[in-house]
Amino acid sequence: MSSNVASRSIGILLPLVVSLIVSGAVLLAIGKNPLDVFGLIATESFGNPRRIAATLSAATPLLFTAVATAICFRSGVFNVGVEGAFLVGGLAAIFLGFTLPATWGFALFPVCFLAAALIGAIWLYVPGILLAKFEVDEVVSTLMLNFIAVAITGYLVNGPLLSPLSGNNVTPLIHEVAYLPRLMPPSTLHAGFLIGLVCVAAYGYWCRYTPAGFEGALIGLNQRFSRAVGISVPRTIVGVMILSGVIAGIGGAAHGMGQMHRFSDGFSPGYGFTGMAVALLGRNHPIGIVLGAILFGALASAGTTIQLFSNIPLDLVNIIQGTVMIFAVVELGRISLRRKKGTANAN
Amino acid sequence: MTKMTRRVLQVTTACAALMAGSVAMADERPAAMIIAQGGLGDGSWNDTANAGFLSGLEKTGIEGRPIESADVAAQGEEIMRRAADGGFGLVISLEWIHGEPMEMLAKDYPDTNWVIMNQTRSGDNIASVVFGEHEGSFLAGALAAQVTTDTSIQGINADATIGVIGGFKAPGIDKFIVGYIQGAKAVNPDIDVKVAYADSFGDPAKGLQMANAMFDEGADIIYQVAGGTGIGIIEAAKARGHYAIGVDSDQDGMAPGNVLTSMVKRVDVAVDEIVTDYAADNFPGGEVIQFGLAQNGVALSDMTHTKDKIPAAYVERVNTYRDQIIAGDVDVWDVSSQGYPDFFQ
After folding, report:
1. Fewest CB within a 10 Å sphere: which of B13, B75, B80, B146?
2. pTM across the whole model
């Protein structure tokens, strides 16, 4: 167990350290003192309660997309369609948030969240069933579904759902009663962060204590063995895809009702993909996911505000993020290697 | 040091500080401009605004920075608040979606000057920048009406018929369309201006289809007021050998020779002027600032690819209209403030 914890922390720390070295070298090359810049990033991320709240606010959508990704990755299902489910789920919640009468009050919360979860589930059920029944490669199908999600939501906000008050790709605002409350006003940190933590905790419980979670892990380790002990691999695959869609959809709803209060172009600047990096970095472990989400949230939030106080371009932060992602993906190679070995042993 | 001398010292320093404050009237706190979605390098809205921003900073000696974010839609409020907390005196956002949060933040930070584009937000310390698109569109219409009957120009038929395709039937779009019609009728009262709406800002295929239908009906010049849908309109003009008129940024290069001109919003001029006013302690807080022809806030493009194709007299007549509008001799109808005119409902 302790060696497990140690290897996990190395797994999180190593990509970070390497990326700091790489970006430090870049900074030196452009004549900046890396320590000053990293210090500025640190204070802009965690320097005072208001900055911490901004970091957690930026981390919130990543909690959902990382959990949604991890659910599938640990079963060896390479679902890259969380982005799409996040978008369609978010739009569903927003649509109901401004269409249903405001007099529904608090009832809007469960209705919007349920609708988002349902739409997200249906969205990823499709590639799930295609993989389980027809062995359609899930990487291809989910990636394509992302493009469809962007196209559909883009069409709707530029057309039928466009706010009459604006010529710009945005829907109307949802009713104010449907705004998720803010946790530390005036920061934008909202109750969606807590919902995200609940999702992470539920995911941890599901992994550890439920048969479905165990079966998911088992098919990720060895499909042949799973079949041999009577686990239905297709059913498990469809199950994890649906769960992933539910979490991604809820994430879209939380982001919409807590942060944006409307749907617009740019609703998600790629949270689904950053979530993949977070899941990989966190080794699909709940605590790792929380730490990874906070790290990427800090980079997103501080990466922008450091520009106010230094002439560090956004590109530098992109380099840090990029190197963290690359070294997080190194682990992905290890997983698939292990998978192959497992199958070979079973043979 | 006795208590008394300390007291005196305190008072004198306080006075000195006050004096310094009143002598240096001009605001010297730095300025921040938040780049909209699409980021720097979009060759359009953001880059144009940034050029004006940098030029304004250089002229005034104010320090300032363009701020980019990969997640500008969701993080706008946090970025703007950080800028205000960080002692910035002027915060400009190019992102439309930042309007509501800015209205809220402006109350919390009365000492910060805020600027939003293409919308009107209330607050004593907010300047709302709007563009005189109706005036620029008038010139586009006046040019199109002259060109449309000149069969010596390639791709032009004898019909006095031109078109305009809007994204939506909405006052913000009809502001362009009405100006365009008025400009065309000023040249030729009998001209037929075909008007259609794509019901989408993001559907180039539909734009192409609708433009082709209009070309089939005898139009040879179509003004696009439809955002991304307009890309299809320009493509149709290129494919059919007719003409489109671009909008917002200089789109002449998108189909060289087939974009007659573009009705350009000079966001660079607007930002430059705002920075200059701010530096001179003359910030137009609480005002809606119109950037029309007089302010050089809207203009027709330089027509790099088409100016040799059409007689210079046409452009001269357009310039005459421009001068008349600036002088107040010609009033262009503004749907956004005046509602709909009799000739267009």
Report:
1. B13
2. 0.85
